[in-house]
From TrEMBL:
GO molecular function, one term: metal ion binding
UniProt name for this protein: Heavy-metal-associated domain-containing protein
HMA domain ranges (all copies): 2-67
Gene3D superfamilies, A to Z: 3.30.70.100
Pfam families: HMA (PF00403)
Record-linked InterPro entries: HMA_dom, HMA_dom_sf
Length: 74
């Protein structure tokens, strides 16, 4: 299992959390998603490595700002 944490800006409520989760869940190989709104952290566990571009695309299609990997939250 591979786990990566990313920073996603603009999430403020459970609706935001659900919207981002739904978009990311569509990516092939995603096993679980955990979101911590106060720290803007989205942690994704997957069976194989997922290209950052795929995650960025899913987040931006959900109309949130993908801010890249979150080194301090890994």
């Amino acid at each position: 299992m591979i786990t990566r944490t990313y920073s996603v800006l603009g999430m403020a409520c459970t609706h935001c959390e659900e919207t981002v989760s739904h978009g990311i869940a569509r990516i092939e190989g995603v096993e679980s998603i955990s979101i911590d709104i106060p720290s803007d952290a989205v942690t994704i566990s997957s069976r194989a490595e997922i290209a950052e571009a795929e995650i960025r695309r899913a987040v931006e299609q959900a109309e949130y700002e993908f801010n890249g990997p979150s080194e301090r939250l890994r």
